[in-house]
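Collaborator request, handled under Task 6.
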Amino acid sequence: MTIMPDKFEKVPLKSLPERQKPKYKIGDLVFVQPGSGKHTYGFYLKEGMGVVIGIEAFKIVGFESYSPKPIYLIEYKIKWAEKDSHGYVPEHSVFLVETDDE
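Structure tokens returned to the collaborator:
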């Protein structure tokens, strides 16, 4: 049985609890891998590198009976390195690319 939320409410990044703040910032070079780190999934999202150009936060509404704490989703707008396009990627599929800072 799949449980679906009632809705997603867009929330300002400033209003997120400290433990839910975005891991990455605009301008970060990231690698996108569909999945959660343990499992790869997602036919709509291909892996690749890009730069974070936007960040959105959403509160998931309708799971209160399953989780007393609010559940948030962080989504990054990624400008793909290989092409002149962008995509929207959930935080669990985004990983920081280590670079040499001089």
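The cover message to the collaborator said: "The longest strand covers residues 48-61. The radius of gyration is 15 Å. Please let us know whether this matches your experimental observations."
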